[in-house]
Design brief:
This protein is α+β, with helices and mostly antiparallel strands and 67 residues long. The protein has one helix at residues 33-45, and strands spanning 2-5, 10-13. The protein is 19% helix and 12% strand. The protein has a two-stranded antiparallel ribbon with strand order 1-2.
Amino acid sequence: MELVCEKYKEKVDSEKAVCRRPTEYCKFRGACLLHFLARERAGEEKKEPEDRGGKGKQAGQAEVGEL
């Protein structure tokens, strides 16, 4: 599938979709598929840290009138 940069009217293949000028202002960025796909790929590369079973305190239930 071929995508188009609305700002510069450049055609980009969806497999290599990436904003070529990510630091410049773009009024189309909120609805830009190129920007969305690039961020989605970046999120896949960056893995979430695993929960290591920490022993943090859990908050108890609050009672009415308690501050």
